[in-house]
Amino acid sequence: MDTINLVKRSLPRRNRNQIILKGLGASAIIFAFLMLIILISSLATSGYKALTQTHIEFSVYVDPAKIKPERLPRGNFKGVLQDSIFVHHEGELSKSERKQLAKILSNGAQFELRDRVVSDSSLVGQSITLKVPTSDPYDQLNKNLIDRQTEEEFRRLKDNEIAWFDSLDGKGLISKPLNWGLIFNTDSRFPELAGLRGALIGSFWALLVCFLISFPLGIGAAIYLEEFATKNKFSNFIEVNINNLAAVPSVVFGLLALAVFIGWLGLPRSAPLVGGMALALMTMPTIIIATRAALKAVPPSIREAALGVGASRQQVVFGHVLPLAMPGILTGTIIGLAQALGETAPLLLIGMNAFITSAPGTPLDTSTALPTQIFIWADSPERGFVSRASAAILVLLALLITMNALAIYLRNKFERTW
Amino acid sequence: MTILAFALLIFFASLGCIINHRSAVSLRNSRLRLASITLYHGLFSLFLVFIPILILILLWLVLQNPLLELYLLRSVLVEYLAGANKGETDLMLAEIRSIASGTIFGQPEEWKLAAGEQLAALQDLFSKLLVFTIAVLALILIFVARYKVRPEFRARQNVERIVTWLMIACSVVAIFTTLGIIASLMVETGRFFSLVPITEFLFGLNWEPQIPMREDQVAAEGAFGWIPVFTGTLVITAVALFLSVPVGLMSAIYLNEFANHRVRSISKPVLEILAGVPTIVYGFFAILVVTPAFRSFGDAVGIEVSPNTALAAGGVMGIMLIPFISSFTDDALSAVPKSLRDGSLALGATPSETMLKVLFPAAIPGIVGGILLAVSRAIGETMIVVMAAGLIAKFTINPLDSVTTVTVQIVTLLIGDTSFDNPKTLAAFALGMMLFIVTLIINIFALRIVQKYREIYD
């Protein structure tokens, strides 16, 4: 009787404790959810603005007095552009005002005009329509990132510049199309012109090198350790090594690449080849572990059947076990490559954070990679680069999601349960 | 030329394979009984050609330019380089190299142009020599392999022996990677300690690596005591654990004991996404959202928060570590035998009592192992702290202050121009060495705990 009363009396307290623990657990999960939502939404709100780019469209009279066909590609393209844009300005302008208001055009505008005129010199003397990005401050203004209520002296654009922009906008010359330049342009000092082409191609080369090295080496090592190695000190030592490599900080791999590949072997700095080699060493443990798990999952009956009809051990593995384990191996490899794609620190150490305005043609050319490009832009003082960096992160995350979705698809489609 | 070399490699290897396969087939067709099936005769030739030539090409590519440059230094350039130190020599070589590859900046001296031309001519000659060597060697090897095709030749056994050695070679790469890490760190750290005394590095309380690059430059003396850098790392790690351990543990307990199937099936992928986000994204998130939030909060309540507060970097790192700790805890809890749980519930304990008094204590070793691995990750984590933590080493444990970490210093010391004869660069390797040692010890310790614990219940 006494015990039962004791239990009964303590029950409310114990149930309360249960609820508290449950509540704490649920709130921990909710906290993790919340963090993910804040992370994604803050990146999206700051990044989506870079998905469009303010352009200005106006007709340009290619003045033969300023651009002479026989002197191409030289010519006063800047002057021609200014003359054409100030057609839309009412009232007289002083020289300094002209200089100030001409800055609405991106620095790339003159080069676009030059390229068009050089490719077709009959344009000299005619009027052509040109659609070029505006410079970064006007882009920010158009996206409401510059507060018009701020006092003039603290504002990046002065009153007359805003009025000038509004008058052009009123004439329908300003538009905000999708920013394809973000993907197809290479890096630039001017945020409105900077794009990811060089970084994407650099990352592609690095990942290709990484795959070509880590995939065969990883599978070879995994098959040996899982199927052939006798349990002795040597194979044990290899396993300890692989497990430790999987936990070595990535920056240490960067130090290794810098000292060995660049310092001792004399490979070029900032090259995707070296980056890919460093990433391959990091990805290999992941591939080995995934391959071993996939090999282990193939039931012994397959092996025994093959051995029973007279196959050698290698014929069993390469002819029967490996093909059956392939979906699992590919899934692990893609996940490993996705990790390598987001890896930044080793690439920074081998100098893939250089400012490079051309896309690499071969893995030996200097280049940036997607994550290092994000790092460069995030570090830049110009405001336009912040939203570029967010947009670049969105591109990176989109690539990662695609790769992981591919891995999940492969797993679901080809995985067999025995 | 490299592409041609690899194309030749593939061409000759497949040629050998086809020749051997054909001749084995013709032997079989003439009613001879072969010891191995024809396929293995082809593969034997393939491996015999492929492996030596691949090694030849790789060695050639690595050694060609250093050897040619050494030759130039010893012969033509001797008179111009008399008295030049290593840095000047490297600069000179770099210029000659770029002349040889066809890019000429400004007006180089006559002899540099001549040397560049000579280097280009030598490179051309050596490339041709490489192709020639490949062709000769390949033909010899194909001939040798073809000669081996006999009915009694045990091609399969030979091929399998080669494949076994190839697989062993693949496994040994892991050992060589570890050796490479240790060797590179040791060599550069050794050079660092020949410039800076080891006692100063290990016990010094000042870290000011801004040393003069040139004789006449005005800069600080330079101090290389790693203690403030390491304490900074510890502060940020502590902040990260302070957030991630409770949240990770609680979410694992909830998922393991209380959550129904639906909650589990949603929560697990969410945690996996958090784990899969690249660290540079977390770093950018820290400077974009978290730091300003802490600053404005500090302003509102009247506490001074430094612009690179350790709270921001550590907090974001904590978010990164939540899934890590959660999945380790979940595994450890699931590994506890069902009989323990059933026994406890049968005695009338509530699920929460079962969890806290039975399952959790039984899972402690696995959880501690997981937390230790998280600590080693936090210490080695780079991008979050490079973007969100400070650059100046301050000897403090105040998380509101700005601190720097080992990884931040490694990256900032090595970004930009790096010459290997400068204590500033070499200091990064010394820090890398310490980082490697510390994380290695923690990892080995953690893996031990996790493994030992697994053995108890298995």
Structure, described:
Chain A has 418 residues and is mainly alpha-helical. Helix content of chain A is 64%, strand content 4%. Chain A contains 16 helices and 3 strands. In chain A, helix 1 packs across helix 16. Chain B has a two-stranded antiparallel ribbon with strand order 1-2. Helix content of chain B is 77%, strand content 1%. Chain B has 2 domains: 150 residues, no CATH class; 235 residues, Orthogonal Bundle (MetI-like fold). Chain B has 458 residues and is mainly α. The chains are: A mainly alpha (418), B mainly alpha (458).
Jot down its keywords.
heterodimer, A: 418 residues, mainly alpha, MetI-like fold, 2 domains, 16 helices, extended, B: 458 residues, two-stranded antiparallel ribbon, 15 helices
Query: Which bin fits the share of residues in helices of chain A?
Result: 55-70%
Helix content of chain B: over 70%
CATH class division of the largest domain in chain A: Mainly Alpha
The fraction of residues assigned to DSSP E strands of chain A is under 5%
CATH architecture of the largest domain in chain A: Orthogonal Bundle
Radius of gyration of chain A: 30 Å
Low-confidence stretches of chain A: none
Number of helices of chain A: 16
Q: Summarize this, please?
A:
The complex is a heterodimer of chains A (418) and B (458). Chain A is 64% helix and 4% strand.
